[in-house]
Recover the amino acids of this structure.
């Protein structure tokens, strides 16, 4: 007993003594804009090689305490400004070192701080993989209603029927499964039954930025990260009290052809959002409510959506914090699966015209960041995600429903040996409970351990090595485990230039819906496949990035992913004349391609030009064919001009004609004219103004989406939105 007591005491001292013995040195100062010396609220200050840092107050001031005596390099960064690093900062015990810094505007953000690539904060130029960032301003100016709408303008990303396709990793699987993992503030946010991404649960007005990591990231994030990660980061709670109001309305253009007309009324949508945030000492609270009423441009495709959002954060004196989130979504509306035929492109078949879907989804999540010592940070986070959804049809008696609960907890440690060497490690556990008419009663989950070591060999060369072991099950006959390694190299020969290469193994366990669905939709029937195997892949990438003077940024990459047991949905047989569909393993597949993006911001940011092009060659090696629903060419461009207080801009998206779809559904006459598809050309324009009305900042934006009223489909027999006029008004108090 005494031996065990001594061991526990020794362990306690090892873990706690670094905190007890911390000296009381500190760094304080002010971060200001070089142009007008105004304080830069929200600027991030970090001490390199340590877990210490701070965020600037509304007047730009900051103070970091508990620093051991020594010499440090301190980094100052803020979106829209060039990063500044001050070297040789001396800290002495019991004394405060004052550092005042001015930052210069830099519209092209090559030095932005991101957190998704390595599960820790690091500069964008230090990341050894391809990553894109979309901030709140870009989402606001386009009047995006959901995250799905915003992702359509990210290079390398394509959306098909609400499912995210990063670099050809995914096609369309009818709402079951995803090869892209969605995170909410770093916490997995994916449904326990269908394994899909639910964009509507997160109100766009609460988004600070979205980070998109491209390529297999299973070495850190496990299953569902086979094709990449989308991390939605919510807004921080400001220092002062703030109230935010937004109201918007949209008008759908009339159909192009008289035979498409199904309503004599104008089709509108409108929405309102209000939020309030405040701080009392170290405790901050933000609450938001919003709603959307959409008449829809297609028959029986209307939506009614209501969101509630709550965020609380407590900051501790030792730089630790506790954050709690709660979100609630209530949504109901019609269900449009596919058109009746091309002559009735906005009208569903008769059997679908009264179908409706209703869902109640809510989550509670938390994250605790603890500073064990100056060089050791532990972050523990978890979520309970509840989904209750169902649909009613005239072919069924009562309601077909699915109820699922997902519980996920993870703890990550970051050990900073110095500014040259960082280790990240942790464990994750997940448990799912599903009770559904479609899938039966299912229980599953998994455990994982992972570690990643980043070491700067020389001033210009950084090596990252990591691995993760996952043990997963969804109630299949035998649970599956897999080790996923990762290696990445980053070479920065001169400032602003980076060459990267990476290799990683990915895997994905099938979702409950893919393995166990038993359902009928129109004149189709889905049957389970209990022999479905997990997917796995090997992914490779070589990339190059270059920035010039804070107003030009170029990024290019070549990539390849080899897949085994890729899961695709397709026709398997017929029963009593009814076609049967099933999710099955494609033995071998390969996706190759390259990607380039360019960002220009001359004239001190008055003009911003962004563009991205992705080429993908998706091969089904088993069938000697191409994979379904994967366009070869995706191009996006954007231009924005700011003449304060007015801004105006436009964007263009091009997606090449998809080569392969579900031809069997067309050949059997299940979907009439389903083979009708064209290359996609979508143009949008916007104009707005940011003005002060008294002491209230007001933003007004007018958008014309699909300005040339181009008719196209992203998914078989689903006409995309026509020209749409949108007016939005926002105010902050």
């Amino acid at each position: 007993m005494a031996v065990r007591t001594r061991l526990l005491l020794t362990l306690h001292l090892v873990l706690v003594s670094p905190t007890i013995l911390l000296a009381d040195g500190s760094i304080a100062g002010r971060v200001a804009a070089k142009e007008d010396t105004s304080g830069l609220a929200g600027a991030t200050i970090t001490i390199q090689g340590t877990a210490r840092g701070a965020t600037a107050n509304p007047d730009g001031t900051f103070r970091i305490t508990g620093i051991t005596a020594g010499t440090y390099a301190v980094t100052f960064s803020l979106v829209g400004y060039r990063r500044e690093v001050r070297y040789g900062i001396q800290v002495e015990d019991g004394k405060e070192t004052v550092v005042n810094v001015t930052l210069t505007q830099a519209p092209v953000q090559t030095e932005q701080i991101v957190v998704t690539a390595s599960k820790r904060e690091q500069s964008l130029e230090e990341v050894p993989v391809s990553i894109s960032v979309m901030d709140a301003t870009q989402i606001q100016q386009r009047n995006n209603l959901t995250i799905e709408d915003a992702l359509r303008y990210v290079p390398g990303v394509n959306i098909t029927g609400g499912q995210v396709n990063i670099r050809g990793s995914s096609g369309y699987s009818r709402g079951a499964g995803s090869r892209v993992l969605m995170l909410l503030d770093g916490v997995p946010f994916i449904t326990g039954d269908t394994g899909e991404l639910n964009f509507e649960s997160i109100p766009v007005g609460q988004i600070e930025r979205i980070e998109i990591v491209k390529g297999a990231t299973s070495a850190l994030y496990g299953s569902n990260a086979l094709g990449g990660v989308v991390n939605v980061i919510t807004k921080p709670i400001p220092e002062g009290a703030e109230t935010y109001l937004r109201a918007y309305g949209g008008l759908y253009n009339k159909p192009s052809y008289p035979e498409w007309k199904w309503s004599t009324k104008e089709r509108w949508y409108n929405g309102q959002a209000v939020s309030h945030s405040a701080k009392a000492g170290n405790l901050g609270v933000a609450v938001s409510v919003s709603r959307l009423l959409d008449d829809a441009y297609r028959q029986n495709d209307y939506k009614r959506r209501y969101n509630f959002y709550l965020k609380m954060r407590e900051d501790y004196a030792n730089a630790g914090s506790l954050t709690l989130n709660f979100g609630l979504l209530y949504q109901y509306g019609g269900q449009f699966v596919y058109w009746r035929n091309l002559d009735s492109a906005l009208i569903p078949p008769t059997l679908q015209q009264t179908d409706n879907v209703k869902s109640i989804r809510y989550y509670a999540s938390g994250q605790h960041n603890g500073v064990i010592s100056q060089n050791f940070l532990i972050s523990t986070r978890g979520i309970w995600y509840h989904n209750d959804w169902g649909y009613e049809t005239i072919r069924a008696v009562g309601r077909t429903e699915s109820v699922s609960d997902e519980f996920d907890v993870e703890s990550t440690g970051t050990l900073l040996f110095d500014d040259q060497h960082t280790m990240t490690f942790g464990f994750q556990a997940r448990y799912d409970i599903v009770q559904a008419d479609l899938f039966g009663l299912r229980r599953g989950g998994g455990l994982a351990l992972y570690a990643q070591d980043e070491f700067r060999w020389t001033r210009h060369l950084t090596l990252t090595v990591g691995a993760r072991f996952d043990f997963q099950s969804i109630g299949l006959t035998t649970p599956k485990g897999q080790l996923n390694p990762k290696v990445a190299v980053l070479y920065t020969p001169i400032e602003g230039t980076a060459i990267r290469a990476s290799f990683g193994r990915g895997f994905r366990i099938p979702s409950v819906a893919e393995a166990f669905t038993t359902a009928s939709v129109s004149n189709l029937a889905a049957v389970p496949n209990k022999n479905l195997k997990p997917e796995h892949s090997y992914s490779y990438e070589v990339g190059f990035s270059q920035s010039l003077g804070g107003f030009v940024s170029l990024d290019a990459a070549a990539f390849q992913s080899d897949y085994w047991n890729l899961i695709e949905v397709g026709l398997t047989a017929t029963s009593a004349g009814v076609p049967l569909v099933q999710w099955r393993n494609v033995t071998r597949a390969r996706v190759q391609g390259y990607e380039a993006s360019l960002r220009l911001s001359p004239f001190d940011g008055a003009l911003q030009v962004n563009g991205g092009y992705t080429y993908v060659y998706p091969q089904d090696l088993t069938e000697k064919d191409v994979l379904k629903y994967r366009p070869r060419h995706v191009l996006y461009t954007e231009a924005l001009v700011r003449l304060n207080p007015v801004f105006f801009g436009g964007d263009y998206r091009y997606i090449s004609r998809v080569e392969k779809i579900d031809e069997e559904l067309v050949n059997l006459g299940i979907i009439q004219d389903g083979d009708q598809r064209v290359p996609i050309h979508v143009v949008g324009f916007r104009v707005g103004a940011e003005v002060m009305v008294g002491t209230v900042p007001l933003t007004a934006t007018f958008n014309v989406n699909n300005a040339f009223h181009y008719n196209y489909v992203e998914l078989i027999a689903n006409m995309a939105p026509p020209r749409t006029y949108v007016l939005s008004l926002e105010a902050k108090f």
